[in-house]
Give the backbone structure.
Amino acid sequence: MANNDSDALVFFGATGDLAYQQIFPALQAMIRHRHFDLPIIGVAMPAWTTDQLRARARESIEKHSQIDEPAFAILSAKLQYVSGDYSDPETFQKLRAALGAACRPLFYLAIPPSLFGPVAEGLKTAGCNTGGRVVVEKPFGRDLASAQALNQTLSSSFPESSVFRIDHYLGKEPVQNLIYFRFANSFLEPIWNRDYIQSVQITMAEKFGVSGRGAFYDQVGTIRDVVQNHLLEIVALLAMEPPIARGLDALRDEKQRALRAARPLVPGDVVRGQFRGYRNELGVAPDSDVETYVALKLFMDTWRWAGVPFYIRAGKELPVTSTEVFVRLKRPPQNVFDVIAPTDANYIRFCVSPDVSISLGVRAKTPGEAMAGKQVELTMHEAPGDEMLPYERLLGDAIRGDQTLFVREDSVESSWIIVDPVLPGVGQATPVREYDPNTWGPVEADAIIADDGGWHKPCGA
């Protein structure tokens, strides 16, 4: 263990869904890969015993991963449990006692944002925050004002260098591969600009609906759920300039510059949709106007990207579950041979899920005497899915104090500045258009991209 590594892991919300679905499987994986050797303290309100928490951990891993008996035995032995109300100072005194000699604990807040304040204050009052780090989950607010208030709350107990805002999407292997591909290949840089790129499409399609989470989703919607965070992070990775150094903040500095250069959205560039039947979901208001789909057009005011539209669409109950980036290149200036239609231009495609690949779309001559061609796709890279779980990677980074893959305060606020003007209840939200399940959203979404050859069918479609 390095001198700056955390020496204990405390996760609040130990009995909740996030711990059940993500944290316990990640902890077993970290132990199996031999990069975790810390005491683990779960904190939650139910009056459980440590044995009950161990049983919950086993059930979690059996459902969401696979039990590795030697690794789970180590995990089980490291687990402790502290029960108590987050507003009760005694809870944090019990936690301080359970930490023992640990002086650099990592606190993971797997709890609703409304509880961040009481927990941060409780840790500070008990003296647990000194030397510690804190990991918080998205959503980082509901708009710019609430994000600023949340950041102020956290900064009252922890310095920014000790705050780790986790977006698990940044820990996915395909997203890491996108960053690597951009800056490890010299052939890409000369064409990665407005002179050669016609447009950029980012699609995040989900075949499923709200999956029993209607009450939660009806307070969030697609823009807050995936656009403001996951998809704008991908935009930043695509649009950013090369980092000037390998230092901690070099990558995050360039991402922030890219986000600051994005124009705030306007209603005319946004289409919101809602799948037919959403209002019948348990927990959803009968007159809900929350979007389950959004399509939008975004521009970056930089020398590199001036005039290049970034199109984003995301939604539920679509024909496939797939995430991809599709970069359409400009056509040649003259048709030397056959006519090249807009949809037959060269492209670079990054399939993020379910398959992982990087492909190049090119024209190749068809057999015969005529100088005519066809569109073919060359797969440049293909790999299996994540070998390292996103939470395994991100927890490991947080323990080491590496903030590279975590979201900085200024970037969170810049993302909200982009979407605030079209957020329901904040800006001027566009009407919700109904669409049938198993379709590509409302027909109005096609008009946004009509001048750029239309939406590209993503991986698996």
Remarks:
- The CA atoms of residues 76 and 247 lie 37 Å apart.
- The first strand starts at residue 8 and ends at 12.
